Amino acid sequence: MSTVQETKYKGFKALDNALGRFPHKLQMRIGKAAVRAGASKYARLVRKGIILGGDENDVHLKRSIGVKALKSRANKKMIMAQVGVSGPAARYAHLYEFGRSGTSYEGQHVFENTLKSSEQQIVEAITSRLMTGMEKETFK
């Protein structure tokens, strides 16, 4: 269930210039908080998208979706976060998302559909957290 989605946005030039006024360490701290806020928003929206059936696996799946901050080994300027399923529900998550080959069940594609439909909300969460973080660091 490892699908990497990388999206680049244009129009963040003013925000990038404002963030560039801070030292690198503060930029990374503000950026990590912003990326984590966006990933948390995405995780909440994915949890909402999971339809609970009569199966207890759906409940376990919904509870086990979480956010994990990743460290970049190669590039120290890159900030990453991963939204995924942990624990025993990971096996079921793959079947729930992608389906099973050889059967008529094609999967729900909740992660993919949520990302497509709520991209603007995630960007707004990241942007607002960046603005809040820069304001906090400015007035310290």
Describe the structure.
- By secondary structure, the protein is mainly alpha-helical.
- The protein has one domain (13-98, 107-138).
- Helix content is 56%, strand content 9%.
- It contains 6 helices and 2 strands.
- It has helices at residues 13-19, 24-49, 56-63, 89-98, 110-117, 119-138, and strands at 65-70, 80-85.
- It has a two-stranded antiparallel ribbon.
- α2 (24-49) packs across α5 (110-117) and α2 (24-49) runs antiparallel to α6 (119-138).
- The protein is elongated, with a radius of gyration of 18 Å.
- The mean pLDDT is 84.
Indicate the topology.
Blueprint: H1 13-19, H2 24-49, H3 56-63, E1 65-70, E2 80-85, H4 89-98, H5 110-117, H6 119-138
Antiparallel strand pairs: 1-2
Helix pairs in contact: 2-5, 2-6
Low-confidence stretches: none
**Global Rg:** 18 Å
Largest sheet: 2 strands, antiparallel
The quaternary state of the protein chains shown equals: single chain
Helical residues, percent: 55-70%
Count of helical stretches:
6
Number of domains: 1
Strand content: 5-15%
The number of strands is 2
**First-last Cα distance:** 42 Å
Mean pLDDT: 84
- Specify the overall morphology: elongated
**Backbone structural class:** mainly alpha
Give the neighbour order of strands across the main sheet: 1-2
Order of helices and strands: HHHEEHHH
Features:
2 strands, mainly alpha, 140 residues, two-stranded antiparallel ribbon, 6 helices, single chain
Q: Can I get a quick summary?
A:
The protein is mostly helical and 140 residues long. The chain is built from 6 helices and 2 strands, in the order αααββααα. It has one domain (13-98, 107-138).
